[in-house]
Amino acid sequence: MILAGGKALFLKRGPGGDYPGFWGFPGGRLEDGEAAIAAAIRETREEAGVSLEEKKLEPWARRVAPRETTGAVPTPVAPGQAVEPGPVDDVDFTTFIARAEEEFVPVLGPKDSPEHVAWAWAPPYEPPEPLHPGCRIALAKLTLDELGIARAIRDGELTSPQRYKNVSLFALRISGTGVSYRSDKKDDDGKIIREAEFVYRRPENYLTEEFLARCNGLPVIMFHPEKGLLNSEEFENRVVGTIVLPYLKGDEVWGIAKIYDDRAVEALTNGPMSTSPGVLLSGTGDQRITMEDGSPLLIEGKPALVDHLAICQVGVWDKGGEPSGVLATAIGDSSMPETKDDDSKKILDAIAGIAKKVDDACTRLDAIEESNKAEDARRKADAEAKEKAEADSRRKADDDAARSKFSARKDDDDDASYKSRHDAEEKEVASEFEKKGEAKEMAADRAKKARKDAEEEDEKKREEKAKADAKNKADAEKEEEEERKKADAAAMRLIGVTADQVKAVLAKMGELDARIPKATTEADYQAVIDLQARYDAICGQFGDQAARPLAGESAAAYDLRMARGLQKHSARWKDIDLSGLKPDAFAIAADQIRTDALSAAANPTGVPDGRLVPISKRLATGHMVTEFRGAPDAWMRNFAGATKRNVRRFNTSGSAA
Question: Are 329 and 280 spatial neighbours (Cβ–Cβ below 8 Å)?
Fold first, then answer.
């Protein structure tokens, strides 16, 4: 990529080669034994006519990814156009930067058959399209910060390592999972302090978002400290960088590390090197078992501490193979991993052989652990339920005792004295709850509830007693009535009188009693007088007077007697037996009858045509007045004679006189 004045040189590929019609940088395939930088110098001279010096080329980007094409000779594809997929292989895009003082006119070549048909200088952030896939990430890197580059490495857009300002970004394995092999650990004198063993690291403890979060900022150091964990001195002497972007990769945990130490960068780049995590196990969940062949196996539990990530020559999670914890593909490096030696192959074969057994063993152990957890949970639940039941029982006993502190209502209690006594008792109950350790507000609430319950219970008992007393009284009265009837029957048999005869005598006595004038109160007398005045006003409209009250006649009887007299004027009530109505219904009927009577007096009906009917009314002053309804000239007809005409002469001329 040639840069000049903020723009980059782009060449448009011609027909006959890869990616015809696409825009890209000067470049091409490596020849046999040719280094990447040498190929860049050669291709730039052939395709653009520019000679570059190796020392002025800056290694910029490398991307190894599947070919983004649909065939050996890809062409631009219109949106929505279907294409048949072609062969896919990995393509190594390596980019160098050359900086020119100013833009120039390239000479497209080779002379005999130029590979490109056009050129353009364009801003890197606005390249011509379609763009060659190997160029896009190289252009993007111009604007990426260290986090963007780290993400590109993680996503396979850029190879590890990538240089950014003062740091190098490497992809490092933090931890593997599954089965691996840990060799003997010896001290400086060669004494074995930990025997070799197979280890099993549970994926569910490591392949999680939680574990990734624990790896943020994880120190990267050169080799493990002697005591296993970092301290202040070891941190100062060993730290070369930190993990800035942890991520999952298959069954392993990886991270992009910022490496600041130049010697560490050189060691990682020139390798081969690997990694080993410094993890402190909690001991909880760790289980050691012996395999059928006698090999020891450690099944690790959840890590208590992720302390550091050590750069080393061989890591446990290489699983006996070549170092694989560091991705370090230098620009121009095309070397392939070396073939594993026999010892490594044996370890790998052993790991593969016991993997299923370990899985089975872990499954059994997990089942046992889950069973134990379930049993512990059941016991805990039973204990909590028992404790709650006992607490509820104690609380109920306290509440029952509190209710008993409130005295029952006495027969001579008025509301004020009853409330005053219970107020004092409520304070006493609240104080007792506080002495038992209840908070003041809670004690007051419990005392108030106990009072409410006690009063409701007392009221219920009083209601039940009242119902029982009423029933006993009714039963006694019924029994007394039956005894009286028996005595009356015996007496009537003795004197020879029948029950019907007694009823007839009683009825006659009732009629006589009704005729006897009753003494009336001042209120009854005034009510009758008011009714007489009301009915007198209505009857006066018909030229009559209201009847006088009978001696001893009640207001209700007088109202009924007068309403019957006017009942004929009410279409709604004229056929109703007013004496059978209840007082409320009669009051409505009497009011409507009086209203209908007034209306009938004011608007008489049934006056024959040509007749004049007199209607006499008594005024409030006692004077009688007479009004007439009908034909006004009817009264004069009796006095008017027949109309006569005399003929004086006859008209014979044919015209009117």
Answer: no
